[in-house]
Amino acid sequence: MSADDHIRYCAGCARQQQFEQPPCEDGHSADCPERACVVCGHAILVGAAPAAVPPAGAGADRPVTVVTVTARRGAGRSDSRAVA
Q1: DSSP codes joined into one string, 27-59
Q2: CA–CA distance from 28 to each of 20, 22, 74 (Å)?
Q3: Starting at the edge strand that comes first in sequence, how are the strands of the sheet with 34-37 ordered?
């Protein structure tokens, strides 16, 4: 891949920036869809997003909590909501 393959629009910087693949803690290794802006740390997913898997013991009639996290250096914010 060339360096241009890692240039994407960064919502945190509001401009085109270079993105890198951070160390994957989910076991995806080289297939990890996460990328982080090298300037502000804003995280994005590239390619197809992995399928959500309900936690063990969660029944079909119980809602699953979806957490969306925007990684920014110095600011820890998240949006959490229940979906059916």
Answers
A1: S-GGG--EEEETTT--EEE-SSPPPP-PPTT--
A2: 15, 11, 26
A3: 7-10, 15-20, 34-37, 43-45
For the CA atoms of 17, 1, 31, 50, the dihedral, rounded to the nearest 10 degrees, stands at 50
DSSP-derived secondary structure letter, 48? S
Q: Are 67 and 80 in contact (CB under 8 A)?
A: yes
pLDDT tens digits, the chain, 84 residues: what are they?
445 568 999 999 999 999 999 888 888 877 888 999 999 999 998 887 666 666 666 555 556 555 555 555 544 444 444 554
